[in-house]
Design brief:
alpha/beta; Rossmann fold; OB fold (Dihydrolipoamide Acetyltransferase, E2P); 6 helices
Amino acid sequence: MRIALVDDRVADLNDAENFLNEHFERKVLGMADSVQIDSFVLVEDFLRAFVPGKYDLFILDIFMKPLNGIQVAQIIRNRDRDAFIIFLTNSAEYILEGYKVFAVGYFLKPLSKNVEQFDKTFEYIFPKLQENMRKISVSVKGVETGILNKSIRYVDIGEKHNVCIHLLDGEILARNSYEEIFAALEGDSRFVECYHRILLNMDFVKYMDGNDFVLNDGSRIPISQRKSKSVKLKYMTHLIGVCSPNTLSL
């Protein structure tokens, strides 16, 4: 897991980084070595380093200059709609502003004096972070390749009856059977088999139009008449889960 920590006060930045490292040692046994924290005291340095998909979690101080944490979060959200964002603040007074950019929570400073609130928030988002890092292993040209579930838009069968995995940045043909791919993704609640041998990641759905899903890029995926009721119910359930306010720490 890779975390971007941004705070223009050096002392607060160091305190937060030390606390996070101690937390992973204390609470997440066996994971501390797999966590990388990139700390930034200058917003400009962070924005130069930031590319979509690079970080699993962003922890941003609210009161920064020249851009405050809300403005930085808006930039992140515009480029990475699935990003997990948490705010650092001395006061909860302005935290409702954070939910306009779909932040998952906030941490009160200093973290060392708000351990219970920190643990409560982090325990809430940790399963979501784990889900965001889930991968499947597929055979591509005879080489086993790991693919992040979140990067898969949908899976279908290509012209030569090969399994085609449509990704954010292109598509690949896998030597695995459709059934193997289905089994690997079946436990991920983001995926639904909306049509015969079409497995769709609902995170990429913009809206439903009759018996079609319309994706963010405008492409259309059909919904089977036979499965229509169950598929639409699963999609509505997914929407409720995505859109519900994550206000556990309030």
